[in-house]
Amino acid sequence: MNDKTDPSRFRQDGRSTGGEVDYRAELGSFFASAAGNNVEKLENFPCYVPRQSIARFLCLTELFKMALHVQGDIMECGVNWGGGLMTFAQLSATLEPVNLQRRIVGFDTFSGFAGISEQDQHEVVQTAERRPHGYQADSYADLQRAISLYDANRFIGHIQKVELIKGDVAHSVPAYLEREPQTVVSLLHLDLDLYEPTRVCLRHFLPRMPKGSVIVFDELNNRTWPGETLAVMEELGLNRLRIQRFTYEPHVSYAILE
């Protein structure tokens, strides 16, 4: 435990040492003061990115490659600051530049958790973010701008690739599928943390996932967020899945539908 202010504001309570917090603070200071303008720094991003962020980027790259030859869209359920969504978008533009049919769709309230259910509670492990409006990242406008810049730097950028769907998934997911009845899902990324929204997304998207498609979990077997595991048990069944993980990223696991 430490009482230092972490510049990475959504770090799980009590899991970082003072040294880790100091490292992130120093990294931010280094990025701000280092030689070169912001574009030059972004072009050399490995100089300024934590190892953990590189690990997650590699992890998402491997997951995208698993779904690369599967027909269907990518659904990112829980967008937060948008790093995962835009990783999938950049990978699609890079690895399959003429795939006009693959869309990357992000679902989020952009105002934090809509609510907390009984299934999300844990008797021992507590966190300040397990509350209504927890993990609030007001990133919608910034991501719209990021998407516009992304479109300006890809092949066939006049055809929409990335879409943000704002609202509670209990309403936004069925409304989206009513609007887009042709939807097939090749990769479903569940990063909602909570029981009810995870259950909703599984219930609506699973029937649209062919064999070979990929389900990605961010909080499976996570003591802080038990709701995701309970939703997967109810809607899919753990014993029906071959759940695998990466040796270099502690949170992400996945299953390929067989």
UniProtKB/TrEMBL annotation:
<keyword id="KW-0808">Transferase</keyword>
<dbReference type="GO" id="GO:0032259">
    <property type="term" value="P:methylation"/>
</dbReference>
<keyword id="KW-0489">Methyltransferase</keyword>
<dbReference type="InterPro" id="IPR008884">
    <property type="entry name" value="TylF_MeTrfase"/>
</dbReference>
<dbReference type="GO" id="GO:0008168">
    <property type="term" value="F:methyltransferase activity"/>
</dbReference>
<dbReference type="Pfam" id="PF05711">
    <property type="entry name" value="TylF"/>
</dbReference>
<protein>
    <submittedName>
        <fullName>Class I SAM-dependent methyltransferase</fullName>
    </submittedName>
</protein>
<dbReference type="InterPro" id="IPR029063">
    <property type="entry name" value="SAM-dependent_MTases_sf"/>
</dbReference>
